[in-house]
Amino acid sequence: MSKRYDHREIELRRQGLWERGNAFATVAEGGAETCYVLEMFPYPSGRIHMGHVRNYSIGDVVARYQRMRGRSVLHPMGWDSFGLPAENAAIQHGIHPARWTDENIARMRAQLKRLGLSYDWSREVATSSPEYYRWNQWIFLKFLERGLAYRKRSSVNWCPRCSTVLANEQVEDGLCWRCESAVQARELDQWFFRITDYADELLDYTYRLRGWPERVLTMQRNWIGRSAGAEVDFPVEGSQEKIRVFTTRPDTLYGVTFMSLAAEHRLIEKIAPADRLGALREFASRVRARAAAAPRDAEPPKEGVFTGAYCINPLNGERVPVYAANFVVAGYGTGAVMAVPAHDQRDFEFARAYGLPVKVVINPPGEELDPAAMERAYTEPGVMTASGDFDGMGSEEAGEAITERLEELGCGRRTVTYRLRDWGVSRQRYWGCPIPVVYCEDCGVVPVPYEDLPVVLPEDVDFSGQGLSPLESSPSFVNAPCPRCGRPARRETDTMDTFVDSSWYFLRYLSPRGENAPFDRDEARRWMPVDQYIGGIEHAVMHLLYARFFTKALRDMGLVDVDEPFERLLTQGMVCKEITRCAEHGYLAPEEVRDGRCAHCGAPVEIGAVEKMSKSKKNTVDPDHIIERYGADTTRLFSLFAAPPEKDLDWSEEGVEGAYRFIGRVWRLVTEELDTLASTPPYDPAVDPPLEGEAAGLRRSTHATIKKVTADIERRFHFNTAIAAVMEHVNLLYQFRAKAGGELERKVMREGVEAALLLLSPFAPHFTEELWEMLGNRTPLHETPWPDYSEEALAVESVEVVVQINGKVRSRVTVPAGSDEETVRERVMADERVRRWTEGREVKKFVYVPGRLANVVVAGR
Ligand code: ANZ
Ligand code: ZN
What we know:
single chain, alpha+beta, four-stranded parallel sheet, 21% strand, binds ligand ANZ
């Protein structure tokens, strides 16, 4: 009698058994090869979404597969639990951030457990717990000791109406998220991490991270933005000051016709005549206001103001007018640009707009440019002209020669500039890790002693959302004795950027309850680097770069041995679904649609493009509903089958139903003939006779499927094609079952069924484990080794050969693939139907078209 597939009952029971049996506890046995599988931990926003389901299902396939391969697997999960939403909830609804966060974690943990993900839950960490952030503070102090943390004045977003600092996320189009006042810039002393010390190494290693997507590496390289060039000093006429520029094109030095300074360049005040300062200051504040309001990619038209000052080109002594210009970035290079309109497009546009001269110093080979007729800058290499001793040289060679000349004259040098800035980590927020320093009037900046850590967040905080930082409203927190002299002092009230928390959490998982160090060095030696990291492309730059920086800094402190934290990285695509809109009421959720009409106004709805699932577009699907209705196995299987992991996945209810039907099909395949299957051992080539015909064909499919699924998981993460291969194999099992009668066939059937369950188990672990047990297997499926395929079984592929006799199809015979003509002829002539047509007649001709056709010509009767 066949048992009904009750996904809910099976999944809850299996999950209970796994939990009670500690099935996925990390076992670091002596010999086994280790494998650290990690998915980016979530922010506890309240509920998991389909993106999480996808990310964690992918990771779980890797973890379960590697365990079955005999590796000792570490697969942890935790919470990136500091952050703004918790604090916004406190401001808006008066719930304490800690309570809000804990409740969310509890809910999301239950959801993850309901998916049957094979985590070692004993290693769970939450970055908002003092046991965790104590070590953030410890690392901060180590950075401070080594000069990797320092203080600098820098601007923050200030809302004058709410009188509070706003995070970048709280500024929308230059306006405060709550009161919509225009946001202002305000200068504060803030903490920075010196990530730029590692710029070169971070860049170099992007060429060694073979297991990372090229796209991510390119994004990191662009973010670091290394530029090799030269610095050149231009003395200011009638002054002791020099303007230092950074250029990547020293070959164009003779073509400089003006100088552009960033609007807030410090020299402007010193070199401009007094009567021009008013206009220059006004220009600077206009540029600053525009920068705060404008989206980053919209480039404003090029504008500038003459400073009234001139500087001198150090190579040819020419007088060069100095401008303040809006397109020069204050924080890049030296904030000053030697302008060469003939060879730089921005300078060209500026020169044309302000009537400044254009001087050609590089000609295209065999051509002569006319500055008056040029419509755009010539930016390619070429032949030097109007450049003194360097005329006639190739421009690339001249760049080197000019740099050398500058070095000899002492007015320039080779240099490298980065786009990467030091990492500002101060946040004027409550729900973050307190920065462990105290300010004393006598002793200055005093680090909190290590033995006094953690500096714990106070409870008596006012969440009205006012002031420089919420922590300022807690006197018990702010007032602290100076650790050095004991006199009353003030505690730092800023907290750390939450990216600090996630820059080393993968190390904390190694010894999550350790009380003597952020992590255990021996454990780090055993497990690091992470073998497979999986997460969203949105973290391609910041999180991944910061985690790489931390690893290198910790290495230089002697705490870890590795240079890089993540050996292989997979960035999964987004989960998308079509949007539904009403012309009047905008995006509609499914419950706002009735019979194809808007439930609010009755107008027909438009079904729009497929877009990333998001609450604002109302096209999300709640994983809980899908799990409730179809089960975790179906939910996982669908999200793995519908697209390769790195591609976007289009949600479809039919797809989910397809996955559900497939599971039902496997379920029936086993349960409908459970008695026979359970009482038959799998085929064993060592004792059982060799196979022929369809039995050999089925066994071949079994082993070909093992081979394909293994390769797809191992090398390419092509889980969708792996699952498709098992589906095909299951089809074959059905066909074979209809005909299988004998003992040998049943054995081959059992082998084929078991392989299907083993291969499916990383994707859909519950029902496969259930069927596995029903077949009478004693070892739980998740502890059973991954199957190996047999080359021998693959070799006996059989092909069907059509047999024609005197031009008419009379029969078909099955022969092992690759059989020679002799073998095929024997097999054909022995076939019963062929015998009927050939008995007693002379075979005049036998032609074999390999793998297809045998043509027999016999003499007439
Ligand atoms: C003269 C020159 C001539 C330049 C030429 C280019 C072409 P990357 O490659 O991005 O590093 N520059 C330097 N500092 C700048 C700043 N703070 N804001 C805006 N532009 C700046 O770009 C380096 C080039 O960008 C430099 O080389 C400089 O212009 C400009 F035919 O110097 B160049
Ligand atoms: Zn003091």
